[in-house]
Each structure stands twice: as C-alpha cells, then as structure tokens.
C-alpha cells in the first residue's frame, strides 16, 4: 500500500514452511564434512525435493520446506558413503523427520562411513550400474528382464560407490556442482512416462529420477573433468 510502517505480513503463495538442519561428520564425529548435499525427500512421494549443502563448519540447513514428513538423506562424496537418517542404509528404513508449525527439526546429524568400509547392512550391489555414458532419450530402455513384479522404488540397492568419469555431471559443463543437483531435484520422482521427465536427470538411466540419481551426483560432487 502506501508507505507505512504497518505493512502487514505479506503471504506469498508458498504457504507456511520450515527448515531442517543438522551436521555432517565422519563416522566417529571427529571430522567436519563440507560440501555434502543433504536432501529432504517428501515421504508422500511428491515429485520434488529440496536440499542444502554442508558448510565448512559441517552445518547444513534445508529451507523452505512445506509442513510435512521427510526422509532426509546425505549424499556422501568420493570418500564417504551416502546415508539416510538416522544411520540407515535404506530409504525404507529412514526415520521420517517432521516439519510442522513451530517445529524446525535441528540436530538431524549424519555420521558418514567411509565408502567401501565395513558393510553396513548392504543390499546386493546392483550389477546394472556400470558405465553406460549418457542414456539416449529416445528409445525407452526397458532394461528389466526380471519376472518378479517389482514393487515401487526398490529398496535402495547399494549405490555404485566407484565413480566413473563424472557421471554426476548431468548438464555436461565439466563440473559437478549445485546446478547438477538442481537438475536432478527438479525432476525428482518423475518417470520416463511422465510429462516433464528430463533424461539428463536420470543419471543411472533406469527411467526414474530417484535417490540413486542423487547419489551419483553426490558422489561426484565437486569433481571436474
Ligand atoms: Ca555440471
Ligand atoms: Ca534414475
């Protein structure tokens, strides 16, 4: 309105929201880990996600979260394995974190094991995760010979911890950074049959943008060609 000190709060269409925060450290808590992307994935399977990056002091914050329950996931890096909260290897076991009116969860901390270190409860390594450079967008791959009707997102098979040449560089600009994360997050939970599916976001080429694709970007994060 006119100039005045009493302008009421202006509500944008974003609605209410909150934040999740915590720290990312190594397994025994002695080393701060910076530049680890941490993701908030809606438990209801909505096709979006938000993320924050751990800073030098190992603190991260994920802002602008609509009220609701989230699986929180630290992406790892070239030395450290990714992990779900709270110290869970699988997203199915993740402890949900709830953001509600007046509740901004803090202390959602991660202690990341070394990649390839003593196996946390590891599902069998996925053999299909190897090189295929960039999936061609056109012919949908249909790579599943398995007769078993797989239920929705398979229980997070152990992600490939070896990083081949910068698979995380989804926009192919030679560096793996926040732009690549944003690209994946923008298509989160979309399948190749969905409108708006971005094949560049499908880092492992399995036809769905999910946490495995985030893992691939996370593992290469900070890498350059
Ligand atoms: Ca890039
Ligand atoms: Ca994928």
| Largest pleated sheet | 5 strands, antiparallel
Query: Structural class, from secondary structure content?
Result: mainly beta
Distance between the termini: 52 Å
* Ligand names: calcium ion
Helix fraction, binned, reads under 10%
Rg, Cα atoms, Å? 18 Å
Low-confidence blocks of residues: 1-5, 7-13, 120-132
Instruction: Give the rounded overall mean pLDDT.
Output: 80
Number of strands: 8
What string, H for helix and E for strand, traces the elements in order? EEEEEEEEHH
Number of helical regions: 2
Shape: globular
Tell me the β content: 15-25%
Plain-language structure description:
By secondary structure, the protein is mainly beta. The chain has helices at 178-186, 211-220; strands spanning 17-26, 37-42, 50-53, 59-66, 68-74, 83-84, 97-99, 110-112. The strands form two sheets. Strands 2, 3, 5, 6 and 7 form a five-stranded antiparallel sheet that branches. It has a three-stranded mixed sheet with strand order 4-1-8, with no helix packed on it. Strand 2 (37-42) and strand 3 (50-53) form a beta hairpin. The longest helix is centred in the C-terminal third of the chain and has 10 residues, at 211-220. The site of one calcium ion has 8 residues, from helix 2.
Task: Reconstruct the topology from this structure.
Layout: E1 17-26, E2 37-42, E3 50-53, E4 59-66, E5 68-74, E6 83-84, E7 97-99, E8 110-112, H1 178-186, H2 211-220
Parallel strand pairs: 1-8
Antiparallel strand pairs: 1-4, 2-3, 2-5, 5-6, 5-7
Helix pairs in contact: 1-2
């Amino acid at each position: 309105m006119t100039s005045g000190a009493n302008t009421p709060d202006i509500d944008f269409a974003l609605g209410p929201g909150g934040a999740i925060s915590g720290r990312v450290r190594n397994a025994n808590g002695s080393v701060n880990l910076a530049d680890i992307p941490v993701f908030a994935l809606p438990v209801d399977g909505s096709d979006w996600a938000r993320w924050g990056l751990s800073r030098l002091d190992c603190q991260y914050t994920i802002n602008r979260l609509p009220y609701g329950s989230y699986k929180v996931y630290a992406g790892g890096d070239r030395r450290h394995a990714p992990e779900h909260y709270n110290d869970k290897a699988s997203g199915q076991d993740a402890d949900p974190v709830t953001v509600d009116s007046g509740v901004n969860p803090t202390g959602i901390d991660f202690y990341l094991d070394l990649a390839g270190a003593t196996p946390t409860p590891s599902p069998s390594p996925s053999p299909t995760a190897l090189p295929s450079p960039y999936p061609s967008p056109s012919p949908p791959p249909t790579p599943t010979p398995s007769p078993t009707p797989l239920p929705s997102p398979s229980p997070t098979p152990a992600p490939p911890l070896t990083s081949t040449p910068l698979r995380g560089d989804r926009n192919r600009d030679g560096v793996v950074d926040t732009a690549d994360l944003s690209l994946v997050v923008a298509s989160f939970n979309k399948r190749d049959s969905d409108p708006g599916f971005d094949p560049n976001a499908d880092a492992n080429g399995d036809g769905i943008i999910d946490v495995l694709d985030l893992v691939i970007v996370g593992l290469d994060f900070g890498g350059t060609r």
